[in-house]
Design a protein that fits this description.
By secondary structure, this protein is mainly α. The chain folds into 2 domains: 1-62, no CATH class; 72-103. 52% of the residues lie in helices and 8% in strands. The protein contains 5 helices and 2 strands. It has helices at 2-9, 27-35, 56-71, 76-79, 86-102, and strands spanning 17-20, 39-42. It has a two-stranded parallel sheet. α2 (27-35) links the parallel β1 and β2. The longest helix has 17 residues, at 86-102. It starts with a helix and ends with a helix. The relative contact order is 0.11.
Amino acid sequence: MDITEAGPLFDEVDLGAFTVDKAYDADPLIEKLEEWLIVLVISSRRNSCYPQKIGFQLYKKRNIIERFFASLKPFRGIVTRYDKLKSTFVAAVQFDSIIFLLN
């Protein structure tokens, strides 16, 4: 489900690099990203016909992002997206991020 929603998201966001895991190793998505000149940091699946060459330094930074989102899991309101408005949700993420950084 996530991979089908990734394409339309790029219309709203200006990306320099796209750092994701093996689940996003799909030819249509990769072609769209290459068309938009976005740096790809996607680890290839084991059975991939055309494995991607990735920048190791960028891929290491993916771990920081994964750990950050894992730390937000105790904040139930963010994980389950109780907020109806985008502005309220973003404010909750910012508030919980500040709490995370202060600890």
